[in-house]
Design goal:
The chain is built from nine helices and ten strands. By secondary structure, the chain is an alpha/beta fold. The chain has two domains: 113 residues, Rossmann fold; 154 residues, Rossmann fold, CATH 3.40.50. The strands form two sheets. A seven-stranded mixed sheet has the order 6-5-4-7-8-9-10. Strands 1-2-3 form a three-stranded parallel sheet, with helices on one face. Helix 3 packs parallel to helix 4. The longest helix is centred in the middle third of the chain and has 15 residues.
């Protein structure tokens, strides 16, 4: 609501153009079966992010810049905006690759998609990590079930849903959001049972509470790497040192510089950060 009121204030003051920088465009999944919205090409039947998109359009936002909005097939929040409003999505994949270039990865490495929706993102991360590190043995795996609707007991009782061999491997799970009720934690137990030597989570956004930080500290997870799209609470830092953040400041400032001043930003090079 602060954003809405700020936009209307800018408009009343004669602003020629208003760009909303929203690093984390918050969303929750609410799906039901197969119905698809033909207007928005989405399987969402309800989403608060769709309502917020309409409100932003009404108050006068001309452009939206965000970090790692979901892709087509995932619900992609960008589809809620009309075609008249450009929505620019900054990809953090290359930032995470730069982080892991300096991380002590031991072969073999397996990149895991925790659900079918993150397959494309995990595949791109795998390709870029191979090019950046020179590690020859970087394989890929995916959990074939929807962990968002699964319970901890159902995850622990199944092992056939994992496509890929993690025995003796350093496993990196590539996902969108880590939060309090993150269903990946029981999946980490399953990966450990199947012989994973190290488990690292790489996610775009981190929604941490005191409860989730305690779970992380007592889990087999070695490290969680997230962007700084959401501020990490001080209580979380005090409870665990397993969380690291990579900065999106340079990427977003590059977009602003290119948009406002017409200068070529580093974010435009080789389609590295914009997807």
């Amino acid at each position: 609501m602060e954003l809405m009121l700020t936009v209307t204030a800018a408009r009343r003051s004669g602003a020629k153009k208003v760009t909303a920088i929203v690093p984390y465009f918050g969303y929750r999944h609410h799906r039901r079966g197969l119905p698809i919205s033909t207007t928005y090409s989405s399987r969402f039947l309800w989403s608060a992010s769709g309502d917020l998109a309409k409100m932003m359009q009404v108050v006068g936002v001309d452009k939206v810049v965000s970090v790692d909005l979901q892709r087509p097939g995932q619900g992609h929040e960008a589809c809620f905006f009309d075609s008249q409003i450009p929505v620019e999505t900054v990809s953090t994949n290359s930032l995470f690759v730069e982080y892991f270039k300096k991380f002590n990865l031991t072969e073999p490495v397996v990149i895991i998609s925790p659900n079918p929706e993150c397959v494309k993102k995990a595949n791109k991360f795998q390709e870029k990590l191979k090019q950046a590190t020179g590690i020859e043995k970087i394989d890929y795996g995916v959990f074939l079930h929807d962990i968002d609707s699964a319970t901890a007991d159902s995850i622990k009782s199944t092992s056939l849903d994992l496509l890929g061999d993690v025995n003796g491997a350093s496993v990196i799970i590539v996902d969108d959001v880590v939060d309090t009720n993150y269903p990946i934690y029981p999946l980490c137990d399953l990966l450990t049972q199947q012989g994973a030597k190290r488990i690292i989570i790489c996610a775009s956004h981190g929604l941490f509470t005191e409860e989730s930080c305690k779970i992380i500290e007592n889990s087999p997870i070695e490290k969680i790497v997230i962007s700084d799209s959401i501020e990490l609470p001080a209580a979380g830092r005090a409870l665990t040192n397993k969380i690291s953040q990579v900065s999106t400041v340079e990427l977003i400032s590059g977009i602003i510089e290119a948009d406002v001043f017409g200068n070529k930003s580093t974010a435009d090079d080789d389609d590295q950060y914009l997807e």
